[in-house]
């Protein structure tokens, strides 16, 4: 029912926009992403790709990414889908073509797919064997991005909910440096 109500509200909003001059182009501009992203590592797949949207004030970014880990580096190939949100509070321009976002703080929600990942505890495990699902992850990131003309490179230092919980429960099971992961990426700015 909620999905139906949301769809009605979206269609009403699009209908109002359609009655304005040049409305089709405005709708297309809003739907097209601002960036295309390729990333290596970073807790969302060995390789991942996706799109990002940026708010008009350039402080908030949101994106969706598909991640993949080849079977060579895991028991079975791992596929994942990630929703990311970031806030860029401190950025500076260096000339007409170069911009640095010195501090990007982000949060992401990831779902992994495959026979080894579950959202609900399978019946063959005793109750309490796992204290969280293996398919869903939440992570925090901190990083920077350098943009030159239409291209950018970035890094993200991040951790996941499970690594943080395991570290808090037993620092011997996972060390401080094992809790962190780094992701490196390339961005092409469409807008």
Report on the structure:
Residues 1-18 form the signal peptide. The chain is α+β, with helices and mostly antiparallel strands. The protein folds into two domains: 1-31; 33-189, Beta Barrel (Porin), CATH 2.40.160. It has three helices and eight strands. Strands 1-2-3-4-5-6-7-8 form an eight-stranded antiparallel β-barrel. A hairpin with an 8-residue loop joins β3 and β4. The mean pLDDT is 87.
List keywords for this structure.
single chain; Outer membrane protein beta-barrel domain-containing protein; 191 residues; 8-stranded antiparallel beta barrel; 18% helix; Porin; 2 domains; signal; globular; alpha+beta
Largest sheet features = 8 strands, antiparallel, barrel
Give the number of domains.
2
Q: What would CATH call the class of the largest domain?
A: Mainly Beta
Q: Which class best fits the helix and strand makeup?
A: alpha+beta
Helix content: 10-25%
The third-level CATH topology of the largest domain is: Porin
Shape: globular
The overall pLDDT average reads 87
Q: What's the CATH architecture name of the largest domain?
A: Beta Barrel
Low-confidence runs: none
- Helical segment tally? 3
Distance between the termini: 36 Å
Strand line-up in the sheet with most strands? 1-2-3-4-5-6-7-8
Roughly how many Å is the radius of gyration? Answer: 20 Å
Strand content: over 45%
* Strand segment count: 8
The run of helices and strands is HHEEEEEEEHE
What's the SSE blueprint?
Layout: H1 2-18, H2 23-31, E1 35-41, E2 47-54, E3 60-69, E4 78-94, E5 98-113, E6 136-148, E7 151-160, H3 161-169, E8 181-189
Antiparallel strand pairs: 1-2, 1-8, 2-3, 3-4, 4-5, 5-6, 6-7, 7-8
